[in-house]
Amino acid sequence: MQVPVLSVVWEGGYVAGTERTARQVTVSGQVQGVGFRYHCLHEAERLGVYGWVRNEPDGTVAGHFEGTSDAVAALVDWCRVGPSYARVEGVDTSPAEPTGAVTFTAG
How far is the C-alpha of 83 from the C-alpha of 88, rounded, in Å? Predict the structure, then answer.
């Protein structure tokens, strides 16, 4: 069972007292070399989601997303489609522990 973590006020970040949830995400298909991470970064910033996204050696894109449950769910839904050049075949998610991230990075 995942225990929600209450966030702290950070510059440009979370409002104190809001619940923060986190998900690990793996996106498969034609998702590398098509701007997936770049567009995911901008979508995360738009939604107020923190964490990271990166290419994996097996050709997938992995991510750790945290924020409000609605914002994280919206970013996971975006991953199911991705940018126009991507061909998403699958998105696997699992609950994760929030780390308290205050930025979103694409590595």
Answer: 9
CB atoms within 10 A of CB 34: 17
Residues with catalytic annotation? 37, 55
- List the domain boundaries for the chain: 5-90
* CATH class as words, domain 5-90: alpha beta
Going residue by residue through the chain (107 aa), what tens digit of pLDDT does each one get? 444 444 444 444 445 556 899 999 999 999 999 999 999 999 999 999 999 999 999 999 999 999 999 999 999 999 999 999 999 999 999 999 999 999 999 99
Distance CA(63)–CA(49), nearest Å, equals: 11
CB 27 within 8 A of CB 79: yes
Q: Which two tokens stand for residue 43?
A: 């979508």
Q: Tell me the pTM.
A: 0.84
